Amino acid sequence: MTNEQAVLDEADRLAGIAQLEDVIYFETSAKRQEPESADAPAVPAAAEFPIQVKIGQSEGLERLLIRMFTEVASPQATFRVDVGAQFVLTEALEASSEVQVAFASHTAMAILMPYLRESLMTMASRMRVPAPLLPLVQPRHLTAESVTIAE
Question: Which of 80, 81, 99, 144 has the most CB atoms at less than 10 Å from its CB?
Answer without folding.
Answer: 81
